[in-house]
Amino acid sequence: MRQFLVAGNWKMNTQRATAVALATDVARGAASATGVEVLVCPPFPYLEAVAGAIRGSSVRLGAQNASAEKPGAYTGETAIEMLIDCGCASVILGHSERRTLYGETDALVNRKVKAVRTQGLQAILCVGEQLADREAERTEQILDGQMTGSLEGVDGDAVADLVIAYEPVWAIGTGKTASPEQAQAAHAHLRKWLAGRYNPAVADGIRILYGGSVKADNALTLLQQPDIDGALVGGASLSAANFLPIVEAGVQAQGK
Ligand code: 13P
């Protein structure tokens, strides 16, 4: 059975004090969330402060991006070694904001996935279609292209604890959530793709998170879908009062 993963992507939000307070509250609240893995992904400058705040709890630390390069002359970049040094266990890669605002291509995301896996960190690979793609019924084609490009040459052990996040771009930060049926259809398609690219056992073990306007009031119906194994939460992860009920929905949806 796949364990639920509820991850908070704080994006470029919080300051040191609010990050520590939020992480402390999440760690306290998550203590009772038996069976659900909880991950927080603060901005780079606060990784260490948040690592301190969650120390001793079950909450894990993740980063929102990483360089594919080894440490060296790459102004403004953050090496995977540095993330590990700060206590990160996971890293979000290929988020649509990285793809659309910073020009990240599948080829670059692929290099990042490989580098992250070589270093033993968990990669959370984001894929998702734009509104125009969905309207033109090109969703599956777009997802296939992103998966093929981002996972080229990623084989064997490298896929062991890979996590996929399906985030339809039109649902991110818009308040428009994919319906549970739309999300389930995309997740089932991604799992079928994984079964073809790898094998059914690998596909069965990989967690596929849904992201895009997940809130306390829509989390449960999404998490009850058979192929939805957790949530990647943006806006609602910025307050423990909004985030913890989503974790709780994971507890309730377990064993569905
Ligand atoms: P929102 O939950 O704010 O829509 O953001 C989703 C997201 O991009 C998580 O990575």
How does this model look, in words?
The protein is α/β, with parallel strands linked by helices and 256 residues long. The chain has one domain (4-253): TIM Barrel, CATH 3.20.20.70. It has helices at 16-30, 47-54, 80-85, 96-101, 106-118, 131-135, 139-150, 180-197, 200-205, 216-223, 240-253, and strands at 5-9, 37-41, 60-63, 90-93, 122-127, 163-166, 207-211, 230-233. Helix 1 runs parallel beside helix 2, helix 5 (106-118) packs across helix 7 (139-150) and helix 10 (216-223) runs parallel beside helix 11 (240-253). The chain is globular, with a radius of gyration of 17 Å. The mean pLDDT is 97. 1,3-dihydroxyacetonephosphate (13P) binds at residues 9, 95, 167, 172-173, 211-214, 232-236.
Overview in brief:
With 256 residues, the chain is of the alpha/beta class. It is built from eleven helices and eight strands.
For the structure shown, list the relevant keywords.
eight-stranded parallel beta barrel, single chain, alpha/beta, binds 1,3-dihydroxyacetonephosphate, TIM Barrel, 256 residues
The helix/strand class is: alpha/beta
| Reported CATH architecture | Alpha-Beta Barrel
Strand content: 5-15%
What is the domain tally? 1
Gyration radius over CA:
17 Å
> What is the CATH superfamily?
Aldolase class I
Question: How are the SSEs ordered, and which strands pair?
Answer:
Elements: E1 5-9, H1 16-30, E2 37-41, H2 47-54, E3 60-63, H3 80-85, E4 90-93, H4 96-101, H5 106-118, E5 122-127, H6 131-135, H7 139-150, E6 163-166, H8 180-197, H9 200-205, E7 207-211, H10 216-223, E8 230-233, H11 240-253
Parallel strand pairs: 1-2, 1-8, 2-3, 3-4, 4-5, 5-6, 6-7, 7-8
Helix pairs in contact: 1-2, 1-11, 5-7, 7-8, 10-11
